[in-house]
Amino acid sequence: MRVLALICTLKPAPAKSSSDLIAAQLLDLFARAGVDGESVRVVDHDVRPGVEADMGHGDEWPGLRRKIAGADILLVATPTWVGHMSSVAQRVLERLDAELSETDDQGRPAMFGKVAVAAAVGNEDGAHKIIADLFQALNDIGFTIPAQGGTYWNGEAMQGGDYNDLDETPEAVASANATLVRNAVHLARLLTAAQYPPA
Q1: What is the assigned CATH class of domain 2-193?
Q2: Which terminus of the chain is more solvent-facing, meaning fewer CB atoms within 10 Å of its CB: N or C?
């Protein structure tokens, strides 16, 4: 079993990123559950705007798409910007739109049988809306969402600070992270054993 984390920070590597940090914490929990993981900072790749599987002219989305296709679980981690997901996360959803026309050999949408989870971090409100928007889009594309499959951290309103600045992970976030991983792995194993019916 495999999990792919798409980190949708606006900061290229190796800059510190709170989205990268929470994704790393989740990947560590997945590893403890016996699930291999990989993380990709999307901003480090030339992902062109559009809704096709390959936009040509050096577009690097096809390589990321192959990684998504090879994973059982997709984690989207995004910062909060003016109450919304990052533009990078929005672009990921736009590019995943191409999967609506892709099917397997039994007529099911290509992402059927894959699990999607989400993480949002920011020093402003918006995590609930971000996760709701991500889940609606990912479910439309064909991913299955586990119970309590989202985790987040919001800093105190109208203050500075960052998830990276914390001395330790708050207990509520650690608990949400653990539940997300436990339920995602459980659901992915069920779907591997019993795929959705053919179209």
Answers
A1: alpha beta
A2: C
